[in-house]
Structure formats: structure tokens, C-alpha cells
Give the backbone structure.
Amino acid sequence: MENIVEHKDAFKIEQIDDNPELTSLMQTNTKGILCVPESVTKQSSHNVVMRQTYDFAKWLKKSRKDITIDVAESEGIKSLRSGDLWIPIVILASDMSVQVFLGLVSNYIYDRIKGALKHDRTDVHIQVYYKENAEGVIRKFTYNGSVEGFEKVAKKFNINKFLG
Amino acid sequence: MMFRTDICRALADSVWEEISNAMQSVQTMNLEGASRELELVAEIVTEKTNAFSDDYHDDVFNDGFILKQFINLLNDYVYFWKLLVSNKFSNSWSALQDVQDRLRTIYRSTSEPRPQILSHIEGQCGELEKLYPYQVFASVGMVEKEAECSICGKSIDSFECQHIRGELYRGRQAYGIVKQIKQLEEVSLVTNPADKRCTIQLLDTSEQFSGVKSLAKGTRDKVLAPLDFGHLEFKRIRKPNNEITVVGRNDLCPCGSGKKFKKCCIDKSYIETTHVEIVPKIINVANLVQLSSQAIQAKPLIVLVR
């Protein structure tokens, strides 16, 4: 895929092996979107979800009643006093494609930054876990960067190009 | 649009002349007078909105909230200039953030067209921030227990509560009240914090405030009216370095190195510094408040050295 984002914007897709907890959650979550705590990613030992998790989940329930979204159990809310927008870490069931999810996130971001001033800067952080197909390997989509960069990724995202 | 309902449009119209007068007072630097006028307007609006019938649609209450935010924003704006011209620079930074938070709240719940004064103040705030020395801010990362919803009292971090942070519900904004911090994880220095008030405090007499100090003086001296503050132009210029004794090129360097001046400190005879020019944007206040001003560009009035 051509480089469509600014230098400071970074996105990647990687294969995830050896994460039994994640594998188990993906097997039990058969519908829609599940927001999961940080500990599931193995990048952190904290069993916490980001503060914006329920805001996102409630916004989705309100704006798209046809989509199922749930939040896995956690032991606390992680709060960062940062101007960045942390989209909850999610795993997608087989009925939810990455493209559709990124489109939903794009709408959410638009709604969230409606109050932003022209000189405000909002960076976005996204982590999505999904399976290529029902039997396929687990992949992780990560994006960290500007809203504009994310819009370009979301618009041009084509999973087939990444998978060759 | 700013107001969705006829009830609040009529209420806004009924106090618009007073708001316009208050802004005229700001221009003439009668800041105390502007505060008094806006407080009076706020009292009238609060009295009227408190008398809203329970039968009214949610939008009426939300419009009432927006109107009050608008008046509070203007009041915060006046307060900012009051602090600035009193050389209370550190506090004026926080007041500037208050103004911008009000703007964000209004923008989030309204759409264009809005009174032109909002975009004018927004532009001013962005430029004013550049005059302050703050580049990095403190940011805290912590684990909290679920926050209590300001509206229903249930956990806002659950599906039991239907409210979403920042949204309006019958004239009340939902937010989470954190009752318990479980663990403080980190305090970082960041460039893009949630709250720009979390600065490393500087004394009002600090040299780093030289830009805002010049603006305050220019405003106090009525060289520039608050609402005429436009944008800044930063330029790099060279000026003589007073700490270097300049001698002939082939003379021995005064620094004592034993070398000729041209081989030693000649490059230090000038230093580069940043000049900031405040470019005014002369406006017609009455038009600005009434949505239809045509801004006139004028030549820079004040030259600052930072």
C-alpha cells in the first residue's frame, strides 16, 4: 500500500501468535465488537480499560442499534490526562469487518472532535484484533497518529492489499 | 445553528443589545463596566431559563445552556483581559483556557452559523497562546474506580447509565465525577495535554512573559483594543551582541584566546533573536456581535522583542 500518512502517523498490521487469552476471547465473542482490557494485549499487565471505552460503546449503541458491542470485565478505568483520543482496544467477531469498524471509528472521531478549535491537535490511538476468516490467524491493526492520517487509512484500507 | 428553538432565539435577541454594549465596553477598555453588563445579562438569562416549563422540549433546555455558556464565555474573555492588563500573566493563561473550554462546549452542541464573535475569539486564543512561554505540560496517568455520572449518579463507565460524557441532557452536561483513584501510574511532560492549565508555574515577573507583557502594555496604553488583537508574525532578526567587545578584524580577540578577532569571536558579534509583530485586525464590534462584520487588515502597531 502506498504511503498515505504523515511521517509521524504510524499504522501496521501484524500477526499475533501465542496469546491463549486473546484466542479464547475471540472464540467466545461471536457477534460484533468486544472492548477488552489492556492486559489482553500482553503489552500491559493492567486489567483496565481506557476511560473513553464506555463513551465509545454507548455512542455506538445509540447511533448503530444494529451492531452489538460489549465491554469485557475489568478492574478499573485507566485515565490519561492527554488530549489524545484513545479508542478502546477491541476484538472483532466474524460478522464485523475491519473496514466497517474503521468507518464507525471515523464517525465517532468526527462526533468527538466537533467541539475542537482550529488550533487544537488530536491524535488517535487504535488497536483492533480480528481474524482474517473463521479459521484464520489473529491479526492486529494498530494506528497511532493524527485524525487526518487516520481518515486516509480508513478510507483506503483494503485488507487484501496488506495480505498480498 | 446556534439555537434550535424559537424560545431561546427570542431570549437571546432580548439581551443582544446589552451583549453588544458590553463588547463595546471591552473595546474602550472599560473592562469593569463590561463585566457588570454581562453579569446583568447572565442574571436575566438565568431567571428566564429557570422559569422554563417542564413541558418544554429538551432542545429548549439545551439552547438555554448554550446561551448561558455564551455569556459566560464573554465574561471569561473579559476576565482574561483584566488579568492580562494587570500583569497577572500566569493566571491569565488559565483564564485563556477557560475561554477555550467554553468555546469547545458551544461548538460541540451547535452548528454554523454562529455569532462571528466566536470564531474571532477562537482565532485570537490560538494566537494569544503563542505569546506564552508554555511548551510542555504535566499529564497524569492513573487508574480510577468507575466515575459517577453528574446527571443520574450511576457509574458513567457502565451501560447502567445512559449518559455520555460531554453531551447535553435537558440543559445539563454529563461528566464523570471520579470518587476514587486506585493507583497513580505516571506523571509525564507532554506537548498535547488534556488540560493546558497543568503548566510548570512561572512568576509573573519572569522574562519568559516578555511577549504578553508587551501586549498588556500596548492594551493598557490603548495602542491596541482587546477585540482588535489579530495575529502574530514571528521573524528572526540579527542584532548586535552587547556582551562582545568589537575590535578590528586583525586585532587580538578580547576574549584572551591569543587569536585574531576574525579567527575567533567575530561570529559572536551579532546574535539572532525572534521578533514578534502583533498584527491588528480592526473590527466593528457591533457587526462582530451581529454576525456580519467585514474585518479590515491594518499595518502592525506594536513590535515586540522576545
Notes: The interface with chain B takes residues 46, 48, 51, 53-55, 57-59, 61-62, 71, 76-84, 114-121, 123 of chain A (CB under 8 Å). The mean pLDDT of chain A is 86. Chain A has five helices and nine strands. Residues 20 and 126 of chain A are 22 Å apart (CA to CA).
